[in-house]
Amino acid sequence: MTQRRIQLRPIAGALGAEVCGADLADLDDATFAEIHAAWLEHQVLFFRDQDLTPDQHKAFGRRFGPLQVHPFLHSRKAEGHPEIVVLESNEARPVVAAGWHTDVTFSETPPMASILRGVEVPAWGGDTMWASTTRAYDALSSTMKRMLDGLVAIHDTSKTFSRGAYPSESHPDAEKTPTAIHPVVRTHPETGKKALFVNSAFTLRIKGLRPAESEALLAFLYRHITTPEFTCRFHWEKNSLAIWDNRCTQHRVVADNLKAHRRMERVTVEGDRPV
Ligand SMILES: [Fe+2]
Question: With bands split at pLDDT 50, 70 and 90, how would you rate the model's confidence at 162?
């Protein structure tokens, strides 16, 4: 699709492009169609100077689909916005999500998209990195691809929310720990591309392998996915906004400025069951 209303500036070889010429608070259908096509192609898009109200943030998310309410993370629920997750860190409470992950894969239907906006950001540091799991899959040998196709993995919150590793409104107890089983390689429902779908935050083990086999294979895949050539890195400014395709990417914050005040707000768009 030819972009007529927006301009795209890729920021890395594997994924990520900055979008100019779009006001997300006032978006017509044709501009949204260009943004959507660019998002599928580049996997994560960045916008600057988007001073959105909570309603505008949610309205942009709803262009992609119904919004999800996160089961554990702190939100702006008290102000009538349970869909807006608040990720805040400062000297007293340092950044916590400093590991590579895909959002909410402990759910049977993990979100399709996450839309994160910088509300208070540090002058330096606190960048976010993304990795393309389609690019990582494509780079594997055909022998490894054959081995992974058909495998499934168990995902849960035992390494994250259940341990209280994230500030959250409620901690699931052992009996209620959400668990999901997903293919190790999923096929993107819109692009048809195959992507690796295991992550170090929520993947517990690969079914059918002995524990040592599962650990070794997952350790290889996590390292492989985060190969620098499969990643991009974004520096936040106040009112920067990123939207990523949660079906074919992982991300992490770079926790190099822990004392600075950093407040991010996120909405997530419901996804389908990975296949
Ligand atoms: Fe995340």
Answer: low
